[in-house]
Amino acid sequence: MTESRLYLRPPTEEDGQQLLTWLEDANHQKGYFGTDVDPSEWMEDYASLAPSMEQLRMFAGFTKDTDTLVAFCNFKPGYPIPWVWDCEVISNPRMSDSGYGLEALALGIEEIFRTEAAHKLAGPVISSNEKSYRLAEKLGFVREGTLRQHLLQKDGSARDAYLYGLLKSDWISPFSDNEKGAPE
């Protein structure tokens, strides 16, 4: 069993401000969203998709050794049915090759499968964002299909997205002795 270098907690308002600075970074936007976006609009849109704000589970990921904010994980039910949860991770752009995004998402998955009635996690990834879909695959997500022209861009064009899914019964945590299945 490998021990995580991170811990998760609910984000504070100050953490949210840090997230906005990450999202305002033009290079981060291009990599994450595939185009320029307005971060505040994206945050409002994301939050509005949850059936209620109480059901939106957000985690801020911090390093254990330096207490540095390195990632955010968001989970919400209803994609499109309540036992299938949407998930995503946003990493600190200055630490994009550290593995912290993968680690934070793994810890978030562990928590959601342990505490919520989630049977499956799912989410679209822009088809041109190889880094993101490779991260999903490393955690055991399976590419279930292509959502054609699924993500609208500011310029009016649309981009394909890959839909990834992870079943609770297929989850193998990098931080537990379980061979398969969610934590007990």
Q: Which structural class do the helices and strands define?
A: alpha+beta
Fraction of residues in helices?
25-40%
CATH H-level homologous superfamily name: Gcn5-related N-acetyltransferase (GNAT)
Q: Which CATH top level class fits? A: Alpha Beta
Per CATH, what is the topology? Answer: Aminopeptidase
Give the SSE string. EHHHEEEHEHEE
Low-confidence stretches: 31-35
Mean pLDDT: 81
Describe this structure in words.
This protein has 184 residues and is α+β, with helices and mostly antiparallel strands. It has one domain: Gcn5-related N-acetyltransferase (GNAT) (Aminopeptidase), CATH 3.40.630.30. It is built from five helices and seven strands. It has a seven-stranded mixed β-sheet with strand order 1-2-3-4-5-7-6, sandwiched between helices. A hairpin with a 5-residue loop joins β2 and β3. The protein is globular, with a radius of gyration of 16 Å. The two termini are 15 Å apart.
